[in-house]
Amino acid sequence: MNMTLLSEKKYDVLCKKVAHETFDPWCEKTEIIFKTHKIQDKNDLMLAIAFAYSWIPTVPKWRGELDWARCKEQLKRLQSGNSTAIAELFRLIVPSVNNSIIGTSKALHFVYPELIPIVDSNVVKAWRSIFNEDERNINKNAGVARFPLDFGKGGSRQKVERHIDLYLQYRQNLIDWSSRLNGVSTRDIERKLFLYGRIIES
Fold it and tell me: Helix or strand or coil: residue 184?
């Protein structure tokens, strides 16, 4: 990947675009509370999902029985520092709750904020504006997640799998970008993306 794409200059431009934007007070007040949550059992996971959907203008719909035994196994792997468990957690949780990568990212972010960044429609909109400027040149930003317009909006199992892979690429992009910025976390970048996406006209 051309790492100049994830540059300090590009982050500075992003910061200037949202310099006067603010977050919803509910999100600001609850984020600190939600991030104290731990997942020990299935009910704890359900609570994390409920927290996440207080940030989303929709009601979570239980689509199928969650394989808690496998989830617990992957959560233990993640707690021990094995980030490869993230992909499996998404594949287990997403189909059970709204078929939503967005909801799953928020629920798991509250429990593992340093490991699992949030993605939502505003973040995707901002990301596309910054990195997907030329849709005709697929190799222009090779290595940077190329979100489609309908990212995270459900669909077939194959489509959801592709979108999970895109999320994982986006996650790695944020980690790489953060590593090039002094004292800037992946959450700092994601928050700026959210604010920028919110002011972009659809």
Answer: coil
CB contact set of 171 (below 8 Å; sequence gap of 6+) = 86, 116, 117, 186
Read off φ and ψ for residue 32, nearest 5 degrees. Answer: -60, -40
pLDDT in tens, 40-57: 999 999 999 999 999 998
Nearest to 48 by CA among 24, 66, 25: 66
Note the pLDDT of residue 133.
61
What is each CA distance from 193 to 45, 94, 115, 127, 159, in whole angstroms?
27, 23, 18, 7, 24
Alpha helical stretches, state H, the chain: 8-17, 25-34, 42-53, 68-79, 85-93, 101-111, 121-131, 157-179, 186-199
Per DSSP, the chain holds a count of helices (H) and strands (E) of: 9, 0
Please state, rounded to an integer, the average pLDDT across all residues of the chain: 91
Q: Are 85 and 93 in contact (CB under 8 A)?
A: no
pTM: 0.91
